[in-house]
Amino acid sequence: xxxxxxxxxxxxxxxxxxxxxxxxxxxxxxxxxxxxxxxxxxxxxxxxxxxxxxxxxxxxxxxxxxxxxxxxxxxxxxxxxxxxxxxxxxxxxxxxxxxxxxxxxxxxxxxxxxxxxxxxxxxxxxxxxxxxxxxxxxxxxxxxxxxxxxxxxxxxxxxxxxxxxxxxxxxxxxxxxxxxxxxxxxxxxxxxxxxxxxxxxxxxxxxxxxxxxxxxxxxxxxxxxxxxxxxxxxxxxxxxxxxxxxxxxxxxxxxxxxxxxxxxxxxxxxxxxxxxxxxxxxxxxxxxxxxxxxxxxxxxxxxxxxxxxxxxxxxxxxxxxxxxxxxxxxxxxxxxxxxxxxxxxxxxxxxxxxxx
Length: 356
Known about the structure:
Blueprint: H1 4-16, E1 25-29, E2 36-41, E3 47-48, E4 53-57, E5 62-67, E6 82-87, E7 93-108, E8 111-123, H2 128-143, H3 154-163, E9 168-169, E10 171-177, E11 180-186, E12 189-191, E13 196-202, H4 206-214, E14 216-221, H5 227-232, E15 251-253, E16 260-262, E17 267-278, E18 282-294, E19 300-304, H6 306-315, E20 351-354
Antiparallel strand pairs: 1-19, 2-3, 2-6, 4-5, 5-8, 6-7, 7-8, 9-19, 10-11, 10-14, 12-13, 13-18, 14-17, 15-16, 17-18, 18-20
């Protein structure tokens, strides 16, 4: 006869599956990611915005979409707007959808960066009963933690899980100002034009003010093997400055701004910050690319949600070669966007391009 403890474990396994699914999973892939297409749906023809959108704010959860023509969101509140997430490698199968509500816009070099707050969401990466069991488990885990810096609603949390069905690159940001210097991970970013990127930082953290004072940053794409280093550097979001001797890896100056960047960086994008917009919990920075240096070609560090990773491992033919293994997935019940070694020889520099 089963004991009460054994019965609970059995019931948990029947409802949740064989394993508890973590929220933050590192995966390795080449840029640009080729697994998920993201489409903006409204009353007209759907728009492919896979490489023209980003999370612009955590609370309220706000998504920014770059618009390159005269499109405007419908004026009627009842009009349906959504982002759909579809598998490119599984006949455009719909994996998730997030309802959108227009909340403003900002201008980027003659283009419109349309802002949307999220509404309801649908996730098709697993059966509904099992999915809601995981939602309840995540909610319970969060309830056992101290209040978060960025409080988001349950509706926003579920939408964020869908949002991270699309692999999101994680970069290391190098910034200096006067005697202050810092390097920290970031994954709220995206291209919003041929030369422009946007990225978001928690407005209450010292690094947000440091970036605004400096006006220049270098974004380093890193190999999947360095994912643990990025997680370790998450604490630097809480620092105004740091001692470079603490980082535990070698650095070298970026090609144009001479900012210290990791010597294992695969690509370094140097940028000049042109504007900063306070949206809520986060500041949205708009930046123009000054120079791009491609140093090496290898699978880069991306982040996905564990629910999508579970679907991915079961359904994609190429498997998950290059991914972080299950032990590297974080059991942290917070949403994946709240991302908080030995020295290597500098990789060979392949190309460097500068944009005046």
